[in-house]
Amino acid sequence: MPGLGVNVAVIHQGQVLLTKREDFEVWCLPGGGVDEGESLAEAAIRETKEETGLEVELTQLVGVYSRLGGFPDVHIVLYIARPVGGEIRLQPGETVEVGYFPFDQLPGEMLFGQKQRILDAVAGKSGISMRQELRLPILTRKELYDLRDRSGLPRQEFYLQRIGPARFDEYVEVGDGKD
Question: pTM, whole model, 2 decimals?
C-alpha cells in the first residue's frame, strides 16, 4: 500500500525555505508523513513546525506527486505556505540545517524530485498530478540506512553516489500546471 505524505514550499520575500536532512545531508522542502486522524493540511502545518520551528499558513495546493519505484511508493501532496510565526530552529535527528534560498540559487545537493516541486510552487502552478519514477532496487528505509551505514561513505557522498545518479523520470499525468 502506498504511503501518503506532504511537502510545503514556504515562500517569503522571493525565497523558498529548505531543510537539510540528517539522514543523507541533502536539501529538501519541509514535509513528511500524515498521522492517523490527521488531514493533509494539518500534516503540512505540523511537519513544517516540527522541522523548521515556523508556523505557517497554507495558501495554495499545488498538486500530487506520486513517487514510485526504488523505495516504498508514496503520494506526496505539495502546498505553498507563508510564515506567520515562530523562529527558525532545527529538529534534532531530522534536520541539520534550515534556511531560505533565492529561487534561482537552489543548492545542488537536493533530494530527488524536490527541484521540480519547488519550480512548480514558485511558478504558482496548481492542479498537477505528476508521476516521479526512481529506477533503483526497492529497499525499505531500514535497508537503505543499513546500506548507507555499511558503505563507509559520508552520508551526503553516499546519497550523491548511490541514489543521486539513479534514473529519474517525471511525467505530468493531469493538467499542465497552469491556473
Answer: 0.87
Q: Do 48 and 42 meet the contact criterion of CB atoms below 8 Å apart?
A: no
Residue 179 within any structural domain of the chain: no
Q: Please give the single-letter amino acid code of residue 127.
A: G
Cα-Cα-Cα-Cα torsion 153, 140, 108, 128, nearest 10 degrees, comes to: 180
Task: Determine, yes or no, domain membership for 96.
Answer: yes
Distance CA 95, CA 25 (A): 8
Domain that includes residue 106, residue range: 3-172
**Structure confidence by residue, pLDDT tens digits, 80-139:** 999 999 999 999 999 999 999 999 999 989 988 899 999 999 999 999 998 887 766 667
Beta strands in 103-166 (DSSP E): 128-135
Residue 178 lies in a domain: no
